[in-house]
Structures are given as C-alpha cells and as structure tokens.
C-alpha cells in the first residue's frame, strides 16, 4: 500500500514537472528567443544560470519590470543594462500571469539538467552488440544517417552513369548522321534520294529471297512426290500426298 502511494505521488510529481517545463519552454519561445539564448549571449545575456546565481525572486522581478528593478538601485540589474548596450528589456508585468511566470522561471532553472537528461537518454538508446567478449556500440541514428547517405550516393552515381551513357549514345548517333550526310554529299547524292535507293534495294533483296525460298520449297515438294511409290489400286494414295 505504501509503495503504491509512493508510486502515485512520484508519477504526479513527474507529470507536473514535465508540464511546468513544457509550459515554461513555450513561454520562452514566444517571448524571449528574439533576444536571449539559454547557453550563449545574444542581444541579452544567456539565461541558463540566472536563477542559480541570482535566485528566483530576482529573476521574477527582472522579468516583470527590469526598469523598476534598476531604479531601485539593484547592482546586478544595472550591470546587465550597462554590459548589453543599455537596451531595456520589455516589461512583462501584467502580460504574464503568476503561474506563467513560475513556469518560465522553472524552465530557466532546470534547463541545464534537462539537457543532461537528454544526452544521457541518447546514450542509453545506443544499440549494444557483443563481439568476442567486447562491446561494439552502434548508434542507431548514425547508422540510419549513414545508410541514407550511401543510398543517396548510389542513386546519384546511377543517375550520373545514365546521363553520361545517354550523352555518349546521342553523340555517336549525331556523329553517325553527320558522317552519313558527308559521305552522301561526297557522292553527290541527296539524303532523300539515298533513302529511296536504300528502300528499293531492300525490297529487291526481299523479293529475291522470297522467290528463292519458293523455288526451294517447290523443288522439295516435287522430290517428295517423285519418291512416293503410288499404287493406282490403293485408295490411300491421296492421303499420302496430303500428309506432305
């Protein structure tokens, strides 16, 4: 029973942590990214350590009204203002609710830990294969990226090969046509006349081949007829001829 209650409490805390962090991340993306980065200076200072160094109260006061905070004599607020070109940050007092402000500060405070969690999670998702007593770690993401790159290289190589092949074939074809035209002109013939002559030649050759084949078939048929021993009194002599 105690374990069950502990599990429920742990689950609720985890869900609340995730919701607060995601809400703060959304607020940061909508209002802060134009001037701030979490891990590097931009128009304004980096923000991943501001809560740890200055505390939650100071961070909330700065977000609400940085002008009022500077005018109150706050030393760090003045230093930030001087170090970053005296550019006043927008006043969010009345624009963000207390709940939204809490979520934003929570996001700033836990950003570093969240990044460490993401790195640790990525490392635990490595595919580990045992080989001769040792361990070969293969990152799935890198493997997929490598496969995609190899497929792309093979595809581009195939396209390049096809392009060069078609280009060579086209070059040979046009070169042949040019040579054909050149030779015809040397012979004093036009292309149309040469094509007509070629067609006539082909038809003549085909006709000769057909006549020759018909002559050979006729000769073969006559030989078969001559070799038949026909008996005048045999009624089956016609069938023997037909079987030929």
Concise summary:
The chain is mostly helical and 244 residues long.
Order of helices and strands: HHHHHHEEHHH
Q: Which percent bin holds the helix content?
A: over 70%
Low-confidence stretches: 1-15, 127-136
- Please tally the helical runs, counting DSSP H or I stretches of 4 or more residues: 9
The shape is rod-shaped
CATH fold-level name of the largest domain: Cytochrome Bc1 Complex, Chain D, domain 2
Content of β-strand: under 5%
The Cα radius of gyration reads 46 Å
CATH class of the largest domain: Mainly Alpha
Q: Report how far the terminal alpha carbons are from each other.
A: 103 Å
* Corresponding CATH architecture of the largest domain: Orthogonal Bundle
Strand order of the largest sheet: 1-2
Mean pLDDT: 77
Number of domains: 3
Largest sheet, if any? Answer: 2 strands, antiparallel
| Overall strand count | 2
Q: For the record, what is the CATH homologous superfamily label of the largest domain?
A: Cytochrome c-like domain
Structural class: mainly alpha
């Amino acid at each position: 029973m105690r374990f069950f209650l502990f599990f429920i409490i742990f689950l609720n805390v985890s869900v609340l942590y995730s919701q607060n962090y995601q809400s703060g991340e959304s607020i940061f993306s909508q209002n802060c990214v134009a001037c701030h980065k979490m891990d590097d200076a931009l128009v304004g200072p980096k923000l991943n350590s501001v809560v740890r160094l200055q505390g939650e109260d100071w961070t909330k006061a700065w977000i609400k009204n940085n002008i009022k905070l500077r005018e109150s004599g706050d030393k760090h607020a003045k230093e930030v203002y001087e170090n970053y070109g005296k550019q006043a940050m927008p006043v969010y007092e009345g624009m963000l609710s207390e709940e939204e402000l809490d979520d934003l500060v929570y996001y700033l405070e836990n950003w570093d830990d969240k990044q460490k969690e993401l790195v640790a999670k990525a490392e635990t998702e490595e595919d580990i294969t045992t080989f001769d007593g040792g361990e070969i770690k293969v990152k799935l993401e890198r493997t997929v990226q490598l496969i995609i790159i190899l497929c792309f290289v093979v595809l581009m190589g195939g396209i390049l090969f096809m392009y060069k092949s078609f280009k060579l074939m086209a070059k040979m074809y046009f070169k042949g046509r040019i040579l054909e035209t050149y030779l015809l002109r040397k012979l004093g013939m036009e292309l149309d006349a040469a094509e007509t002559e070629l067609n006539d030649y082909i038809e003549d050759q085909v006709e000769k081949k057909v006549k020759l084949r018909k002559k050979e078939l006729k000769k073969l048929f006559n030989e078969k007829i001559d070799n038949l021993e026909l008996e005048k009194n045999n009624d089956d002599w016609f069938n023997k001829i037909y079987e030929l």
